[in-house]
Amino acid sequence: MSDLTNRLMKKILVYSLMLLLSQSVAFAQNYDESKVPRYVLPDVLKTAGGKVIRNEDKWEKLRRPEVLKLFENNIYGRMPTDYDSIRYSLTQDDVPEMNGKATLKQVAVTVFRNRQSVQINVVLFVPTQARKPVPVFLLINNRGKENTDPTRVKKSEFWPAEMVIDSGFAIAAFQVSDLAPDNKDTYASGVLQKLYPEQLKMDNGMKAIGAWAWGASRVMDYFETDRDIDSKKVIVVGHSRGGKTSLWAAAEDQRFAACITNCSGNTGAALSRRQFGERISRINATFPHWFNNTYKKYNDKENALPVDQHMLIALIAPRPVYATNASKDLWADPKGTFLAMKAAEPVYALYGVRPELPSAQPGINMPSIGAHFGYHNREGEHNMTVYDWGNFVRFAKKFTSDK
């Protein structure tokens, strides 16, 4: 091997090591509270023009639309509302399951636009003994379909249908791949290419998470036609990226009665400005198909964002929100999630809702459950478990029970 070749190979090796090091530094995550930078959250109650919002009427007419638009344009993308038609077909109806405790419905929700269509497949269990329409938990399932197995051959604590049915609630789910595969190369092959290709050309057009939230609203359309379901008491649920989606779905669609966001972390329920755990630059690099193009302008520039995640939670006011974390999931910033909930309280106060969360983050496995806010930090890893669902049911009973 010649000296020239040796020198060239050494230069390539050095360059490769420098590139790898620079990437490692760029994606280094902070897990040390002492290294959280000083930050100032955007004032959720002050308009862009400097007007301070002091009542719910001004919030709803002035500030809420402004905040919603900021999230659409800078993070999640604009959500289309037009389509030509929507159809519902029951592929299974009133099939007895769970030793007679529930009936199974499988519903195909098909949406048409410009001679194209997409189909959302919904699994729904309803308590057999219900004497009137019942509240329902709707899971945005970002995991495999086997987790919501309609045959119940496989039972997953990610979606403990039997437990929820025993608690008097209906439980439903749809899989995100029906709308947009969770893949940076193929995410556009569903809703986006078929129904809304114009969104792909817009910097503020929705991508995968927007498509999943759009799908949740189409399932909500179906619930309004189902006599077994109380469509005024639909609780949208999501874990991780699904938890980011459940927040966005509830913010965009006020028909959802409540939102549960489980271990949703960055661009979910956790504050971005804390720069703790996963950061915007990392999430945009790893999952470039989740958020709109504009969001990438804020890589490593969290303080330049005109919003933070407390404002997303505030968009759901006065409807109930439950957020969770897990003790071994620092990536999702448990403290930042709790602080975001607390920072949304001033908007709830406009509706006469007093603070229901403690002043400091609750300890591990010490849930705080009110009628409008709920929070817990469960012992364990990034997951959604029977422990989580048990608290979700406790929470839901506070605002779904007849007074």
From TrEMBL:
Residues 1-28 form the signal peptide. It comes from the Bacteria. It holds the Pfam family GCE_fung. The keyword Signal applies. InterPro entries: AB_hydrolase_fold (IPR029058), GCE-like_dom (IPR054579). Residues 109-352 form the 4-O-methyl-glucuronoyl methylesterase-like domain. Keywords: Hydrolase, Serine esterase, Signal. The keyword Hydrolase applies. This is Acetylxylan esterase.
